[in-house]
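Team,

Forwarding the record for the chain on the shared tracking sheet. I've put the sequence and predicted structure together so nobody has to dig through attachments.
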Amino acid sequence: MAKPVLQEVTLADTHALAIGAGILGTGGGGNTYIGRVWLEHELKKRGGSIKIIPVDAVPDEALTVAIGGMGAPTVGIEKFPKGDEYQNAVKALETHAGQKMFALVIGEIGGSNALRPLICALQMGLPVVDGDGMGRAFPELQMDTFAIAGLSLTPMALSDVHGNVSILHQADSMYRVEAYARSLTIEMGGSASLAMPILKGKELKETIIKDTLTLARDMGDAVLQARKRGLEPSDDIASLGNGRVLFRGKITDVERRTTQGFARGKLKLAAFGEPNDQMEIVFQNENLVAWHNGEVVCTVPDLICIVSLEDGEPIGTEMLRYGLRVAVLGLPAPKELKTWAALEVVGPQAFGYADVNFRAMAGDLL
C-alpha cells in the first residue's frame, strides 16, 4: 500500500528523509548527516513541525523561492554553516522584491539540499512545497526545470557565514548566472547559501517536479525497514525509483580533486570474486556516467546512486574510498529532464562527454 504524501516533517521523519535525499543526490547535494543533525537541532530548539504543502496549494500570484547550498561537497563537510545564512538570503530577496514569500521550494531534492529548505522554513515560519526543480542533484544552477523552461534565475541571492549577502539583479543568460555565482561562491570560501529563483505560484505549478520530498521519505523508510529485517535494501530502493541494480562490488580506486568549485573525479569497482568484471563512474559533484566493462550502462540525467551493501546508506562523492562494498543503482530521471530542451542542458554532452549519447534505461519510457 502506497504511503500518504507528506503533510509535515517532524523529528520522526528526519532519518528517513536524510537517507532518501542522499540516494536521490546521486553522490552530491551536500552531506546528509550534517544536514540531518542541523535539522534535528532546529526542530528540538523550536519545537513543532514543518508544514509541507502540495504545489496546487500555492496561489497563482503568490511568491515562492527555491533555496539550497552552492559549492563543492568536499568543502561542505569541513566548513560548517553559522545557521542563519539561508534566511538572510531569503529576507534579502523579500526586501528586493518588496513582497514576502508564501512558501519555500527545494532547489534540488538530492543530498543535504533537500533538508536545508526545511531548516530555513522552520526558522522563518513558512511551509515547504513537496517537489523540486531537479528530481535529483546537479552541479550547476542552470540545470533545473525552472531554467530549462525559460524562467529567469535572477534576482538571486548568495549568503556566507560572515553575514555577507550579495544579490545578482539581472543577467543575460542562465549560464552567466552560474558563472558569476560560482566565482562568488569560491570567494565565500567554496560554500555558500543560495536563494534562487523567485517563482510565482503559476510558474511553479508549470515547472516543478512534484512529490519528490515524499519520494525521499519513502526511499529512506524502505532502507530503514530492510535494516530491521536484516536484509540488503538495494533492490527495494531500485524498485521504488522504477530502476534496477547495475552493479555490486568493491571500490578499487578513487581519483578526486576539488577544482573551480566542484568535486571532480572517477572511481573504479570490481565485482566480488570476478576481478575482470568492472565498472567505472565519473563524477562532477554528482555521478554522471557509468561504464560496465567498457559499455555505457547509465548516464546523466538518469540517476547513478551508490549505496553501502551492508545497510543501504547512500555514499556521497566526498566519502568514496577504497574498499567500500557497494551497490550501484540506476534510476530513470523524471520525464521533465528528458525532453530535447532539457538534454541540451543536463545530458552527458553538457558535461563535456561528446562521445556519450543519452539513452534511456531499458524499460524506461521517455
